[in-house]
Amino acid sequence: YRDHPECDIIINMTTSGDIYATDETRVLHVKDLKPEMASYDCGSMNWLNFGLFLNSPKFLEMCGQVFDEAGTKPEIECFDPGMIGNAAYYVKKGVLHTPLHFQFCMGCANGITGTVKDLLFMKETADRLIGPGNYTWSTFGVGHSAMEIMYTAIALGGNLRVGMEDNVMYAKGQLAESNRQFVERAKRVIEEYGCEVATPAEARELLNLPQRTCSV
After folding, report:
1. Across the beta sheet with 135-141, what order do the strands follow?
2. In this structure, are residues 70 and 88 in contact, taking their beta carbons and an 8 Å threshold?
3. What residues contact 12, with CB distance under 8 A and at least 6 apart?
4. What angle do CA 68, 22, 71 make, to 5 degrees?
5. Which of 13, 15, 101, 178 is the most buried (most CB within 10 A)?
6. φ/ψ bin of 172: left (φ > 0), alpha (ψ from -120 to 50), beta (otherwise)
7. HSE on the CB side for 204, CA within 13 Å?
8. Are 163 and 179 in contact (CB under 8 A)?
9. pLDDT tens track for 51-75
């Protein structure tokens, strides 16, 4: 991708791993590929009522060091307000560096629910603990909360994450055909609100990422 000037998307990789992954294997690809961004899940939780999603303090500190060495910006995924508090702690320790970028994950089972009031509380918590101007944010809602969270995020001046990782149903009773459906709907809603969709270059500026240069 780095050698193709016509492809200027921002690469954002996961560090969630799988049930067999160790802390070390969860970040091997970040070390090797040095993506512009990667997920940083800022706390542990019960996952979908059947398992544990473990992100120990040891892992989070190691992950921060790996990201620093790779030049990778953390996408700090927060499934509840306590994870924002964790991020504030790691800023104080020097593991994370402002400006942060938060992904508020709304409506996931065992995390915060996905309503207007919930998203307002997440943003107010980030304002209080991190400080306005010290972070950017985006969000998504799972299932029936998807559209409520989308509309609220736009109204609050936030950013959106959409796609089949978070929702396989495009609408009630309608299975999604592709990620493109979600992107096109988000673009339509954003523009109808009177805003514009950022280009990759504009997104890099917003996220405080270096502008992309091609090696061709």
Report:
1. 12-13, 37-41, 73-78, 100-106, 135-141, 159-160
2. no
3. 35, 36, 37, 38, 39, 75
4. 15
5. 15
6. beta
7. 14
8. yes
9. 899 999 999 999 999 999 999 999 9
Q: What percent of the chain has pLDDT over 70?
A: 96
Residue in the block written with tokens 């690469």: 11
pLDDT digits (tens, 9 = 90+) for 129-166: 999 999 999 999 999 999 999 999 999 999 999 999 99
Nearest to 58 by CA among 44, 46, 71: 44
Tokens of 46: 């019960």
Distances (CA, A) of 28 to 15, 41, 70, 74, 140: 9, 16, 11, 15, 27
Query: 45 is written with which tokens?
Result: 């939780």
% of the chain residues with pLDDT over 90: 89
Q: Which residues contact 49 (CB under 8 A, 6 or more apart)?
A: 109, 110
pTM attached to this predicted model: 0.94
Rounded to whole angstroms, the Cα distance separating 61 from 59 reads 5
Mapped onto helix, strand or coil, the DSSP state of residue 148 is: helix
